[in-house]
């Protein structure tokens, strides 16, 4: 007997074009909110295909706007699509899409930076971390000012296996300013290598899959846009708490063009800086004359492991902040200067 095909393919019925929706609901892009829309459905289909097979998937779309990507996701045969949009002007247009796809599209008027997606989909979708990724995907074309802080927040969620990653290794397909996409995927030694490269690559398999020219958007942004796909790793390449890794990586890149010992020195109070930096680099077996961009994720793993040991021995070390020390020293210098002035009077 032939296997019965239970899947039915869903296609949206004929609808007004995105351009017509924009006109109908007067959805002119707000420049201050960095709104740039995709009107070409062949292009939104192409972006959505980069997310992988979405058949029967539960998808969380961030910032749907007038709904171009939303339509492509619905046409990909998803079980459910949840969209979170901050600008209320887009809700009626999205409602029209929801009516055309009964039971498939859930609309939330809210902010992706605070929305709790971990409660939004059925519990039964949850997978063990080591299993294949769950059938839950995040897709979004957000303003650049939101996508970068959001990916940092989500990377922290990956490391803690909470937020969208309470379902398991949820995959993400997101757009970034091309330069940021290049930084996210930059390899050791490349010009674009940065803090973001290490923070993303120690937790996820990161792929820059597509470049969308700025002219594809309305209004046209000043830069091209990169589509980046993230799959959390079963085991992070640096097994230390996110804030510790962030502190080490941030310090290392503090002086981007100098030898790495300069930036890493910022992890330690001035009085012990030379000695402790030397110890850190020696124990981690990292050449102090490498530039930050030449440090691999393995180098960072050793540095984080040794720094962790140093923090365990001296519990005040992790709280040390070189900026505060510099500020205090400046105040002290000013006070001493004041004392000298008044003694001269
Ligand atoms: N996805 C649509 C497209 O590709 O045509 C719109 C893209 S536009 C660059 C970004 C969208 O994200 C806008 O609709 C904007 O209102 C929305 N947005 C911006 N910040 C947001 C936030 N914090 N939470 C939810 N939506 C947000």
From TrEMBL:
Pfam families per the UniProt record, alphabetical: RrnaAD
GO terms under cellular component: mitochondrial matrix
Record keywords: DNA-binding, Methyltransferase, Mitochondrion, RNA-binding, rRNA processing, S-adenosyl-L-methionine, Transcription, Transcription regulation, Transferase, Transit peptide
Enzyme Commission numbers on file: 2.1.1.-
Major enzyme class: transferase
PANTHER family: DIMETHYLADENOSINE TRANSFERASE, DIMETHYLADENOSINE TRANSFERASE 1, MITOCHONDRIAL
NCBIfam families in UniProt: ksgA
Protein name, UniProt field: rRNA adenine N(6)-methyltransferase
Organism classification: Eukaryota, Metazoa, Chordata, Craniata, Vertebrata
């Amino acid at each position: 007997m032939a296997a019965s095909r239970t899947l039915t393919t869903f296609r949206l019925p004929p609808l007004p074009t995105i351009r017509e929706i924009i006109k109908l609901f007067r959805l002119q892009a707000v420049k201050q909110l960095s709104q740039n829309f995709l009107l070409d459905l062949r292009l939104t289909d192409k972006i959505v295909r980069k997310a992988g097979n979405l058949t029967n998937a539960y998808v969380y779309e961030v910032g749907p706007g007038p709904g171009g990507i939303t339509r492509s996701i619905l046409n990909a045969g998803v079980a459910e699509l949840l969209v979170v949009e901050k600008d209320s002007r887009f809700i009626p247009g999205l409602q029209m899409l929801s009516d055309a796809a009964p039971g498939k599209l859930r609309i939330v008027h809210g902010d992706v930076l605070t929305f709790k997606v971990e409660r939004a989909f059925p519990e039964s979708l949850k997978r063990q971390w080591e299993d294949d990724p769950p059938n839950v995907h995040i897709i979004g074309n957000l303003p650049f000012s939101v996508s970068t802080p959001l990916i940092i927040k989500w990377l922290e969620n990956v490391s803690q296996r909470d937020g969208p990653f309470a379902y398991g290794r949820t995959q993400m397909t997101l757009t970034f300013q091309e330069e940021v996409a290049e930084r996210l995927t930059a390899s050791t030694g490349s010009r674009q290598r940065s803090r973001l490269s290490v923070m993303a690559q120690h937790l996820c398999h990161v792929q820059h899959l597509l470049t969308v020219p700025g002219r594809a958007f309305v209004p046209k942004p000043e830069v091209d846009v990169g589509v980046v796909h993230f799959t959390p790793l079963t085991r992070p390449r640096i097994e230390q708490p996110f804030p510790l890794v962030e502190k080490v990586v941030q310090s290392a890149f503090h002086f981007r063009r100098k030898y790495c010992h300069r930036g890493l020195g910022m992890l330690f109070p001035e009085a012990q800086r030379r000695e402790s930096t030397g110890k850190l680099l020696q124990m981690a077996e990292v050449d102090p004359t490498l530039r930050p961009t030449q440090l691999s994720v393995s180098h960072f793993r050793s540095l984080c492991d040794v720094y962790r040991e140093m923090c365990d021995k001296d519990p005040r070390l992790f709280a040390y902040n070189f900026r505060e020390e510099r500020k205090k020293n400046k105040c002290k210098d000013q006070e001493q200067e004041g004392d000298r002035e008044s003694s001269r009077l």
